[in-house]
Amino acid sequence: MAQSTYSRLSHFLRLSVNKPSVLRTGTEMGHAPACCLQFTRCQRSVDSKALQERQKQQMARGLPKQKPITGVKQVIVVASGKGGVGKSTTAVNLALGLMANNPSKSVGLLDADVYGPSIPKLMNLKGNPELSDNNLMIPLTNYGIPCMSMGFLVEDVAPIVWRGLMVMSAIEKLLRQVDWGSLDYLVVDMPPGTGDVQLSITQNIPVAGAVIVSTPQDIALLDARRGAEMFKKVHVPVLGLVQNMSVFQCPNCQHQTHIFGSDGARQLADTLGVNFLGDVPLHLNIREMSDRGRPVVVSSPDSPEAEAYRKVASAVVERLHEVHT
User: Fold this and answer.
1) Who has greater pLDDT, 276 or 53?
2) Which three-class secondary structure state does DSSP give residue 126?
3) How far apart are the first and last CA of the chain?
4) Backbone phi, then psi, for 149, in 5-degree steps?
5) Best CA proximity match to 239, nearest among 198, 272, 194
6) Which of 60, 170, 198 has its CA nearest to residue 114?
């Protein structure tokens, strides 16, 4: 069928090429009355504007209407252009930092990375969510943070081999079929990149703001810029950039080394005209505590690395006030 369609298309193109042209040459057009030329230009302009307006209306009809998540006041998405920059670790410690800075605030954590869920490991959570009386999934809770992840619904080592439509269906369930209770903030750990999941979330729910995580390395900054530009295109406020793994300090001699470069994310923030939210160091304690399911903000609250996350959380809250007031 595809070959037959291609053959007919090729035949049509050959006929079009061999058919004598009925277009006037420049010389012939030169003899046309000026009023006719002016009318033709005006008609083309009107047709072009009408076409653009129809396209805009069709696109508007095709987009889903944003609907808030029941019980959630503000949604903060944590994103990165590429994987491996510490986005999930930042999302977890940001959620804990928001609550540590203001214990009166309730914070939830949603793992939207369907293919590679990290929240169960980082938050030391296992098991399947129970169902409420309304047939909604009840989040699993640790450290005072209710969490939901695809990792709670599949085996630890089971690969999720799904096509796009199945992933979109799973995201819809994670957004709409979870009983979050009453939350001041819902932190969403987004998958890396700028694909279907990002578009689905930003088009289905009102997002208060996006936090972009990157290392200072040039290759990571390229993708971080794409991520920031994507959120601008879908009208999601970019709260700012977090520079992760900004510096390594030797635990023996205390010498500091900028393994991935220095101030790359700060310079990118200036270029994009967005805020720089803070630096997070490359520290052994962050890695060890994350692997144990004990995020550094709760396991080592007085450490400099935990303070770095709390400063980022404070900067995020400040930006939310600026954007929405």
Assistant:
1) 276
2) coil
3) 58
4) -155, 150
5) 272
6) 170
Query: To the nearest 10°, the Cα dihedral for 139, 141, 145, 148?
Result: -30
The answer to whether residue 56 scores a pLDDT higher than 80 is no
Cα–Cα distance list, 213 to 72, 260, 311 (Å): 23, 14, 15
CA 270 to chain centre: 20
Which residues of 155-275 form beta strands (DSSP E)? Answer: 183-189, 209-214, 238-249, 256-257
pLDDT at residue number 249: 74
| DSSP tag of 20 | P
Q: Hey, which residues does 256 pair with through a beta bridge?
A: 249
Report the C-alpha gap between 185 and 118 in whole angstroms. Answer: 20
Helix (H) or strand (E) holding 169: helix 164-176
Which pLDDT tens digit goes with each residue over 61-86?
Answer: 555 678 999 999 999 999 987 778 88
Q: Number of H helices and number of E strands within the chain?
A: 12, 9
Amino acid at 294: R
Is 257 strand, coil or helix? strand
Q: Do the beta carbons of residue 69 and residue 205 sit within 8 Å?
A: yes
Q: What is the pLDDT of residue 52?
A: 67
Average pLDDT over residues 115-143: 93
- The pLDDT, as a whole number, for residue 105 is 96
What is the residue-wise DSSP string for 58-125? HHHHHSPPP-PPTTEEEEEEEE-SSSSSSHHHHHHHHHHHHHHH-TTS-EEEEE--SSS--HHHHTT-
| Cβ-based neighbour number of residue 158 at 10 Å | 9
By 3-state DSSP, what share of the chain in percent is helix, strand and coil, each rounded to 5?
45, 20, 35
- The full length of the chain comes to 325
CA pair distance 21, 213, nearest whole angstrom: 57
CA distance 277 to 183: 23
- Asked if 293 contacts 124 with a C-beta cutoff of 8 angstroms, the reply is yes
